[in-house]
Specification:
Blueprint (H helix, E strand, L loop, with lengths): L7 H17 L2 H30 L5 H12 L1 H9 L4 H4 L3 H5 L5 H29 L8 H14 L3 H24 L3 H18 L4 H15 L2 H9 L4 H6 L2 H31 L13
Amino acid sequence: MGKEPLKPQEILEASLDVSVRKAKSGFVKLAVLGFLAGAFIAFAAEGSSAAAFNLLASPTSYGLGRTLAGALFGVGLMLVLLAGGELFTGNVLMVGGAIKRRIGCGAMLRNWLIVYAANFAGALFIAWLMYRSGLFHGGGEMLGAVTVKTAAGKTGLSFAGALILGVLCNWLVCLAVWLSYGADTMAGKILSVFFPIWLFIVSGFEHSVANMYYVPAGIFAKTETVFAEAAAALGVTREMMDGLNWQGFFAHNLLPVTIGNIIGGGLFVSAAYLLAFREDGRKAGGGVA
């Protein structure tokens, strides 16, 4: 029989221990594991889109499309946690270690910067491979059209809207990581990830690393007239299409979503539990599973 799952106070201590280890990781380790994590999240993004694109293309089945996509998307975080990876959005939990002075702010920011850049490289690589593979022509060009539509919707968000959706997203993502620290078995960790991630995808929240796949994939796909025309038939306006570019991606999506992700995980998970359990200074037992 496995050990008892960690109690919330014990999960907090486990999270602080993880933040110390992450802060001490070398550049090569962070870069390689960050690249892999970005690729894992991109695999989840492209796979969930491939499964649900025909449902997402129709307003009457849009909710079902999100439900199906959400059921698959959690595989990305499962791979990060179980196979090994460094994911920026999960590493936002290092805020707790910085608040408790287990790690320095400089060490935390170093980790974030290296991992963020590596996540971007991994996700962008998969987006480019997907485009070059020809798979976007699937479903009578509809997968490519939905890829463009999804990306255009993300770059068309207001700054405030993208930021709020980023907060809500990483609140749930960091809770998934948080719960996984408390699970002792692989099955327990998988279940810890599955439901919070499913909820975030169904809700339509914004994840910075996932968007490192979604938006570049849409930018690549829109260069082909057949995808652009099919996306227009799905309701993508000329204004939305014009806004789907690298400048729009960084300024109107990635920046506010990243800020929101930091707030969502750092404030509403890590800092919130530190405040709730501030009286519990000693580790109650258990460790990082």
